[in-house]
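Hi support team,

I've been running sequence recovery on a batch of backbones for a student project. Most finish fine, but this one hangs at about 90% for roughly twenty minutes before it completes. I'm not sure whether the input is malformed or the queue is just slow. I've pasted the structure tokens below so you can try to reproduce it. Let me know if you need the job ID as well.

Thanks,
M.K.
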């Protein structure tokens, strides 16, 4: 999910480009203003953290772009492409390492496990995902 700062800073195309060019398949995409209740559910695991209120404010501060990407090891590789939670620790070449400075404005969210990805897809998209076979598939996978 491209967070409100990523949208405001014009990074939607850049983020999509990186996942698309890596070879991953886009199966869900939408722009929306996030209701507090959705942001609170999405980050429920962090509800006891001192930054929870500010985090929910941040996610609700403008539209986000929610996406579902599919492909081999997408959760693990996607997290690598995104970089560390704190952009100060994110390597250059990662999205946060190239475009962010502060943890509270780190441009993008990525699911941290397959289980959480499934939960988050259900929460944000329900069953509404596209089914398609990219023409380039045999040029990406052996
Ligand atoms: N966050 C924050 N302060 C912190 C830790 C996290 O504002 O000290 C925010 C940050 O935007 C982060 C989000 O909370 O992306 C969710 O935290 P998590 O630990 O799940 O990091 P992520 O999975 O996004 O790397
Ligand atoms: Mg997380």
């Amino acid at each position: 999910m491209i967070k409100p700062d990523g949208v405001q800073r014009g990074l939607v195309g850049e983020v999509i480009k990186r996942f698309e060019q890596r070879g991953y398949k886009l199966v869900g995409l939408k722009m929306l203003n996030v209701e507090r209740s959705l942001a609170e559910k999405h980050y429920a695991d962090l509800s006891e953290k001192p930054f929870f209120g500010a985090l929910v404010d941040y996610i609700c501060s403008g539209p986000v772009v929610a996406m579902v990407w599919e492909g081999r090891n997408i959760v693990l590789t996607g997290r690598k492409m995104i970089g560390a939670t704190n952009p100060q620790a994110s390597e250059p070449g990662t999205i946060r390492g190239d475009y962010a400075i502060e943890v509270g404005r780190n441009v993008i969210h990525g699911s941290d496990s397959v289980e959480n990805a499934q939960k988050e897809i259900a929460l944000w998209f329900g069953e509404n995902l596209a089914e398609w076979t990219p023409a380039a598939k045999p040029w990406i996978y052996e």
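--
Follow-up from support: It reproduced on our side and the slowdown came from queue contention, not your input. The longest strand covers residues 25-32. No action needed from you.
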